[in-house]
From TrEMBL:
One of its GO terms (biological process) is mitochondrial RNA 3'-end processing. Residues 744-759 have a biased composition (Low complexity). The keyword Glycosyltransferase does not apply. PROSITE patterns: HELICASE_CTER (PS51194). The lineage of its organism: Eukaryota, Metazoa, Chordata, Craniata, Vertebrata. This is ATP-dependent RNA helicase SUPV3L1, mitochondrial. Residues 350-518 form the Helicase C-terminal domain. Belongs to the helicase family. The gene is SUPV3L1. GO terms for cellular component: mitochondrial degradosome; mitochondrial nucleoid. Its cofactor is Mg(2+); Mn(2+). It is an enzyme of class 3 (hydrolase). Its EC number is 3.6.4.13. InterPro entries: DEXQc_SUV3, Helicase_C-like, P-loop_NTPase, RNA-DNA_Helicase, SUV3_C, Suv3_C_1, Suv3_DEXQc, Suv3_N.
Length: 771
């Protein structure tokens, strides 16, 4: 080696040798521990939180960053100064290091728990064994250990340095904890804290006039905002306000309607709660259905509105169960709560008998189901009896819901029966005499985002039952009962309980907070950023972090598409139904087209959805048209966030209105569509025309049965015990199709068993004859 070459090599090594001099442990583990306690180990910044009450992070969410093993680094300096490393000896040395309990303890003090320690070791081992040329200082240290001139513990500083490269969050944990500190959300809204607001709580059950009194103050104000949970409610206030000669604009996720021809903002705004502005000053703000502040998915929107609206008066409407919590929440802002209590304007009673048969329906009845399958089945049975019925469920477009409600409310229309989901609980004024619960079990999402079947809560039951005998309807007294006799005592017990008090309010990470996280963790995916945020977040006992599964679902779906973080975040907050494959596919195509910087034009959208669409011929077609309507809603929602990329809002809105008409026609002919879908569909609630008491038979003989062959459990004589099967279908635990499949499998199994038994008997007889 020439002298000049040696000079260059040593000049390049200078910084590594300096580091090594300060890092090198010369006398084994005891000295290393003393150095650590004296805080003299290089690269050993303590990442544990200074706050004693900080919860440990969920390190299973930390995704290691991949490091390239083919980079040259310092070239072959280490090998030239020492010698090439023996891979087999390296492996033995690294495994000894991994088993050292002292090293694991040191790593734990730096934020590397057992999970991260193991992941870091796997990455470090791969890096050391596969990298073509290691950094000179690491190469020399490893060579010294192999030659007996060093201790295995000397690897630790380089191991820790590698850990912070593959897990960059270790080096900024304190900053991440500060960003995700959600303990004082009231301080997020300085404009609201700069004024002294008056909070009035209008507390009462459904149909008590609480919202009416709040809206009267809303109409009398010089400027006001109404924040509701549904587009239908916002639209109702929009029409009521303008009908009272109070100019009012409408703002929802998919719509902006200005009453001023030139587009100037009116003094009054009716909006969905997610769309309310926390920077615009108002005289009055109305927040409807405040009990939804505890909703696992949307509760954050009520928290934001309550804490952030800049209004002199905040009128809050909701259940009495929320009064104490809202009062406590307002203590944190220094604002007192004035409570106005209301009683129900018209009474409703719980009947002492169940309906039991669709033959016992009366005008003004509403059958409440918790699944579409029940909606389809029951509506067909009703029309098979010569009665007309209206149908309302959640995925129908708002225009179709209003059309069906108008048909049911019209005294001159022959339609006197309504079949609906709990979507009728809010947003629709319906003339209902009797609420009939077809089931008391509903699929719900828990706080972990898991779907589970559970009995409806008292709050949900009261919200639905309260639709009977509304003050403005032709029925001055409401009635509530169940379809099935066994459910009636359960319903009475549910309604007799007091509503569970509200104890927590929802929060959600903002785009700004996620952007700050991304600054520290530039290689993390959006889904992983949100996971780490929630894991590190600190909330006090009054709050919880809302479920983010839908957000993560969309984030993972478009992770491979090149988008900047803010655009990606906005796309992932789009309100779409992830159960609809066509909607998800459209969302993906929208994001891909957006990433190419190509505007999504009207013609492009029409090609994608197959416009113009044909009238539905069966239920499958109707469900697809509902999905197409959701896709157009998605376009409109995105158009107000990215106006230049979604330019044809007016044209899309026009075809959406046409599509709404097509869907309305399909819903009016829903019985024909059901028949076209499955001509052999059975009646899960078919019962005898006479009552059970008149028949004088037991429930087993005359109870609800399936009229098809082979369903349910078979009795001794081959009869079908359908009580279990009908209940499973009714409760949404089985679908008719799945029941048919189970029947076929049971029949095949029975046939095989019979053949096997017959063959066994023949074999037995043959053996006896031989004897």
């Amino acid at each position: 080696m020439s002298l000049n070459r040696c000079v260059r090599l040593f000049s390049r090594l200078q910084r590594h040798l300096n580091t090594r001099t300060s890092c090198r442990v010369t006398s084994g583990c005891n000295l290393l521990l003393r150095q650590h306690q004296a805080s003299s180990v290089v690269c050993c910044r303590n990442v544990s939180s200074n706050s004693s009450n900080s919860k440990p992070p969920d390190t299973s969410l930390f995704v290691p960053v991949s490091l390239k093993t083919d980079t040259l680094g310092d070239g072959s300096v280490g090998a030239e100064l020492t010698q090439p490393l023996d891979k087999s000896e390296l492996l033995k040395m690294l495994n000894r290091f991994y088993k050292r309990k002292e090293m694991q303890k040191l790593a734990a003090n730096q934020g590397l728990d057992a999970c991260l320690f193991h992941q870091t070791f796997i990455s470090f081992r791969k890096y050391v064994l596969e990298t073509t040329s290691l950094p000179a200082d690491l190469h020399i240290t490893l060579n010294d250990i192999c030659c007996g001139a060093g201790h295995t513990d000397d690897i630790y500083p380089y191991f820790l340095r590698h850990a912070k490269q593959v897990f960059p969050m270790l080096d900024c944990m304190d900053d991440l904890r500060k960003i995700s500190d959600l303990r004082v959300p009231a301080n997020w809204y300085p404009e609201a804290r700069a004024i002294q607001r008056k909070v009035i709580f209008h507390a009462g059950p459904t149909n008590s006039g609480k919202t009416y009194h709040a809206i009267q103050r809303y109409l009398a104000a010089q400027s006001a905002v109404y924040c509701g949970p549904l587009k239908l409610l916002a639209h109702e206030i929009f029409e009521k306000s303008n009908g009272a000669s109070v100019p009012c604009d409408l703002v929802t996720g998919e719509d902006r309607t200005f009453v001023d021809p030139e587009g100037r903002a009116a003094g009054h705004v009716a909006c969905t709660i997610e769309m309310c502005s926390v920077s615009t000053p108002y005289e009055v703000a109305v927040i409807d259905e405040i009990q939804m502040i505890r909703d696992p998915s949307r509760g954050w929107a009520w928290t934001r509105a309550l804490l952030g609206l800049c209004a002199e008066e905040i009128h809050v409407c909701g259940e009495p169960a929320a009064v104490d919590f809202i009062r406590e929440l307002m203590y944190t802002t220094g604002e007192e709560v004035e409570v106005h209590n209301y009683q129900r304007l018209t009474p409703f009673s719980i009947l002492n008998h169940a309906v039991e048969s669709l033959d016992n329906l009366r005008p003004g009845d509403c059958i409440v189901c918790f699944s579409k399958n029940d909606i389809y089945s029951i509506s067909r049975q009703i029309e098979a009896r010569g009665l007309e019925c209206a149908v309302i469920y959640g995925s129908l477009p708002p225009g179709t819901k209003l059309s069906q409600a108008k048909k049911f409310n019209d005294p001159d229309d022959p339609c006197k029966i309504l079949v609906a989901t709990d979507a009728i609980g809010m947003g629709l004024n319906l003339s209902i005499k009797r609420i009939i619960f077809n089931s008391l079990v509903k699929p719900n999402m828990n706080e972990k985002g898991e779907k589970q079947m559970e009995t409806i809560s008292t709050s949900q039951a009261l919200q639905i039952a309260g639709r009977a005998g509304r003050f403005s309807s032709v029925f001055k007294e409401g009635e509530v009962t169940t379809m099935h006799r066994d459910d009636l005592p359960i319903l009475k017990e549910i309604l007799s309980r007091s509503v569970d008090p509200i104890e927590t309010a929802g929060l959600h990470p903002t785009a700004e907070q996620i952007e700050m996280f991304a600054y520290h963790l530039p290689d993390a995916t959006l889904s992983n950023l949100v996971d780490i945020f929630v894991s590190l977040s600190q909330v006090d006992g009054m709050y919880f972090v809302c479920n983010i599964d839908d957000f993560k679902f969309l984030a993972d779906m478009i992770q491979h598409i090149p988008l900047n973080l803010r655009s990606r975040y906005v796309f992932c907050t789009a309100p779409i139904n992830k159960k609809q494959p066509f909607v998800c596919t459209s969302f993906l195509k929208f994001a891909r087209q957006f990433s190419r910087d190509e505007p999504l034009t009207f013609n492009w959208v029409c090609r994608h959805i197959g416009w113009p669409v044909a009238a539905p011929k069966n239920i499958k077609d109707l469900v697809h048209l509902e999905a197409v309507h959701d896709v157009l809603d998605l376009y409109l929602w995105l158009s107000y966030r990215f106006m230049d990329m979604f330019p044809d809002t007016a044209s899309i809105r026009e075809i959406q209105r046409e599509l709404d008409d097509v869907i309305q026609t399909g819903v009016r002919n829903i019985t024909r569509l059901i028949r076209a879908t499955d001509p052999n569909i059975t009646d899960p609630l078919q019962t005898h025309g006479n009552s059970l008491d008149q028949a004088g038979k037991s429930r087993e003989d005359t109870g609800s049965t399936f009229s098809t062959k082979g369903r349910g459990q078979r009795g001794p004589g081959g009869r079908i015990d359908s009580s279990l099967a009908s209940r499973l279908v009714r409760d949404g635990l089985l679908t008719p199709d799945l029941l048919k499949q189970l029947q076929r499998e049971w029949s095949q199994s029975s046939s095989r068993s019979a053949l096997l038994s017959e063959q066994t008997n023949k074999d037995s007889k043959g053996k006896k004859k031989k004897k």
